[in-house]
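Proteins fold reproducibly. Next comes an illustrative record:
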Amino acid sequence: MPIENKKDLSPQDVLTMEEYSKTQPQPPQRKRTLSPIDTSSSALPDPSTSFPNKRSGSGHTPSPTKKPLVFKQPTKHEFTWSELSRLVASKDLKPMGRSEAVQTAYQRAIKRRTKKYGSPDEYIRQRILHWPPAEKNDSEEYPPSDGNESSGSCSSISPPSSPTGPVDPLEVTLKKNEFPYSVKKGIEHWLIWSRHPLTDEVWIRRYLEERLPGRDYLFFINPPELRSVPSIFHVQVFTKGEGEVLDEEDMENKKEEQEAATAAKAEGETIRH
């Protein structure tokens, strides 16, 4: 007979939930056999393992010895001299970049040069700088900057002895950037390429003053995360003005002219005496 009023229940008539559940038929239990967990190092996943992309259905593990090329984001802005000066002084280098058209041309050139020379760095080394092909230890990334990107302080290796005279172009050379950053008309983008990291800001300034007579200039070194040519040391240089930019051949001719003038002066003084 059903109970309609809870007040008619005595304590003996009330079942707890646990007791009630025991009175109900239980579904059969399926026995599962668990495999022992292998905790050995060989059974653990490799942290560097790349898992397949669900969309593409394929995975790729990048080579641990090669880093992907770094490209700055293109910009629609043309930087003025005052803007460049402020960014270099504050070491806020990320906003600088190439125009979209120049960036596209640059990336296409990278692909062509990589296919033919193995890397864009090797193309620059052989075709632009006329250096011999890189040895194994030359292809590694040059030491990172110490944070003073505008000064060029990034290693203990010393630069060539005199920046005011001709410098061996196989050691240090000044070249116009093939794919310059987006800057206002009248501003030029050059690069100092060096076989070894340049450590002395004073040396770099004297080097530029000799080769950019009568011109204004700014220089800085991109930090590692912004370098698209990581294995060859280079200094970014912006310059403007009416003066001519002198290369190493010009510097050699200038030195010969100075030596000839000095010799002529000395000869004239000898004749007078």
